[in-house]
Design brief:
Blueprint (H helix, E strand, L loop, with lengths): L12 H37 L4 E2 H5 L5 H17 L2 E7 L2 E6 L7
Antiparallel strand pairs: 1-3, 2-3
Helix pairs in contact: 1-3
């Protein structure tokens, strides 16, 4: 042992923390993916109930459900960016949103 000059059982700091960092990142990604999936499903579930399309206040349960509207608005915007939901028309001054999978040929 003394011939090598180093302790064979000594572990470098990088080797000690590298696997932990990798596990943490993968766990973080999976949690983030689950959260995104659940948020995405919330808007989709609301729109699947009514294939004709719904406005944001209708999804929230009424025009006075301001808290729910504020929660749903970013979820709806993300679903539009992902191409899952599409604005199709206006009803009572509000945009009607519909799932793209329910849109047929026009």
């Amino acid at each position: 042992m003394s011939e090598m000059g180093e302790d064979p059982f000594k572990i470098d700091e990088e080797e000690k923390t590298a696997p932990l960092r990798m596990e943490f990142k993968s766990a973080e990604k999976s949690e983030k993916a689950k959260k995104e999936k659940s948020q995405e499903n919330k808007v989709i579930r609301l729109l699947e109930k009514n294939p004709l399309g719904m406005t944001l206040p209708e999804m929230a349960g009424g025009p006075r459900q301001v808290k729910k509207i504020k929660l749903l608005r970013p979820l709806l915007a993300e679903a539009i960016r992902l191409g899952i939901v599409m604005p199709i028309s206006q009803r009572a001054g509000s945009t009607v949103y519909r799932l793209v999978k329910n849109l047929g040929p026009r």
